[in-house]
Amino acid sequence: MSKHASCPIVVLISGRGTNMRVLIEDSRRVPSSYAVAAVYSDKPGVAGLATAAALGVPARALDASKIADRAVYDELLGDAIAQYSPSLVVLAGFMRILSPAFVRRFEGRILNIHPALLPRYPGLHTHRRVLAAGEREHGVTVHYVTAELDGGPRILQAALAIEPEDNESRLAARVQGLEHQVYPVAVRWHCEGRLRYEAGAAWLDSAPLKEPLQLADLNLT
Ligand code: GAR
Atom 14 of ligand 1 has which residue's CA nearest to it? Predict the structure, then answer.
């Protein structure tokens, strides 16, 4: 673990883990405000677990197919995560709906990244649905997790214009490029104490965010 353990985070994945990799790499840049203490997957054998292990981060699967009862699974997952006393639980392509009990346990300390401009297109297959609807714009949203699926307070978005060449996989790749830019920013803000969840809202620098910030408006160097 890096010496910046003041904000340990646990990343939850279900697949490739490209966002997870970006966060591990970002956490090792100096100055850093957070450390990735562990990675958990609900599926064994996914590529993201091997990536995390190769980067020296404890990486474990808690196989959801072996534990049918959602409440039991979420309690076990919560116990596993709690060993690391995380300041933040970061969902990075974690394709399970977390129970209200899990969300309460880590209230205000769970971030998710969703491949759409919420509140438009919650749920699955966002790229396909956006193309089918003939939208001109698409993107990504980072938000705090509440018990409402993809409905928690939005923090940061990045948008792109749909291009004539876009198909589902091309669009997914372009949106992922934006994901890799926005997620480290939001995690850093939370771990630096600039961003927090309170009374059902996201607050940045002591003011509630009525609308999510837009990546294009930030002066990031
Ligand atoms: C990302 O595109 C993320 O937005 C999406 O899964 C992908 C994971 O990619 N998450 C969801 O759809 C959550 N509802 P990654 O494993 O390469 O980071």
Answer: 114
